[in-house]
Design goal:
Elements: H1 13-17, H2 22-36, E1 42-44, E2 50-52, H3 63-66, E3 103-112, E4 123-127, H4 139-142, E5 188-192, E6 198-204, E7 215-222, E8 225-233, H5 236-243, E9 271-275, E10 278-287
Parallel strand pairs: 3-10
Antiparallel strand pairs: 1-2, 3-6, 4-5, 4-7, 7-8, 9-10
Protein name: Protocatechuate dioxygenase
Organism: Embleya hyalina
GO molecular function: iron ion binding; oxidoreductase activity, acting on single donors with incorporation of molecular oxygen, incorporation of two atoms of oxygen
């Protein structure tokens, strides 16, 4: 299935944070502002094309009301970044590219853990596996080291960071950055928070791989520093519903669920509602920009 990837114009996150290459970043911030005013978030890239945050939704739940039950300003727990992180340099909201799966729209709000105030102009990155458990830029590694039906979730090579089921860490989140092994960049992207501290992504419901429950990785950058690395989870009843559908149903033998995952915490659960032909998940992440542990 082909998805709109006009938003995939490469804009370096580091460049954007430094205030350079402001054409793409300015359009992005304008799109966030439009969404805040109740319209559909639309961004014009430097190619002149437009793209919508949720092009196939038939209903649009109110984003503001979603956050009423989407967490508090209690400091969000740091977790390992896992073995498959690298800076994909893609500032975009629709990160699906050619990946099939149940549409998932994510709304993430970033707050200061001490003041509870929204943090605007923070960069939020997300990345996760596809319906078959594969990560872009690391298909061979995340597929177990080979093709032909190799088991998913294989052990990464030396230097690729902690294994997927690694213990939660502090500081930068644990694990080193991966050198991409291929040129795929699906299900990876970054957005800049608006004045309410909110970003939105359109993706697919993640699949699973051995040793881990279903999850989305998230990293928050404030003032060009990795301030928070964490993971987002889904309710198991919804996982079961989604995984009964194609293409997920083709990937059988799931071995780890929320209650058996050593990173999962109830505070990581997205607040999820139906959204047309897919789902919308919301969560508040509370970061600590001054790094005093509060």
């Amino acid at each position: 299935m082909s998805h709109d990837h006009h938003e995939g114009h490469r804009v370096s996150r580091r460049t954007a944070l430094a205030g350079i290459g402001s054409i793409g970043l300015g359009a992005l911030l304008g799109a966030c502002s439009d969404a805040d005013n109740g319209g559909s978030a639309r961004a014009t890239t430097t190619t002149g094309a437009t793209a919508t945050v949720s092009p196939r939704a038939t209903t649009t739940p109110d984003i503001g009301s979603l956050f009423e039950g989407a967490g508090t300003c209690t400091l969000t727990q740091q977790t390992t970044q896992g073995p498959y992180y690298f800076d994909a340099d893609k500032i975009r909201s629709d990160i699906r590219e050619d990946r099939d799966g149940v549409r998932l729209r994510l709304a993430v709000r970033i707050q200061d853990s001490e003041t509870c105030r929204a943090i605007p102009n923070a960069v939020v990155e997300i990345w996760h596996c596809d319906a078959a458990g594969l990560y872009s830029g690391a298909e061979n590694l995340s597929g177990g080291g080979g093709a032909g039906g190799a088991p998913r979730g294989g052990t990464p090579p030396p230097g690729a960071g902690a294994p997927p089921q690694g213990s939660p860490g502090g500081g930068g989140g644990g694990g080193g950055d991966l050198t991409p092994q291929d040129d795929k960049r699906y299900l990876r992207g970054a957005q800049v928070t608006d004045n309410q501290g909110i970003v939105q992504f359109t993706t697919i419901w993640p699949g699973w791989y051995r040793g881990r429950t279903v999850h989305v990785h998230a990293m928050v950058h404030i003032d060009n520093e990795r301030t928070l690395t964490t993971q987002l989870m889904m309710d198991e009843s919804l996982n079961s519903t989604v995984f009964a559908e194609p293409p997920y149903a083709e990937h059988t033998g799931r071995d780890t669920f929320n209650d058996g995952d050593n990173i999962y915490k109830p505070t990581m659960l997205l607040d999820i509602t139906r959204d047309g032909d897919g789902y919308l998940g919301a969560i508040t992440l509370a970061a600590d920009p001054d790094k005093n542990g509060k």
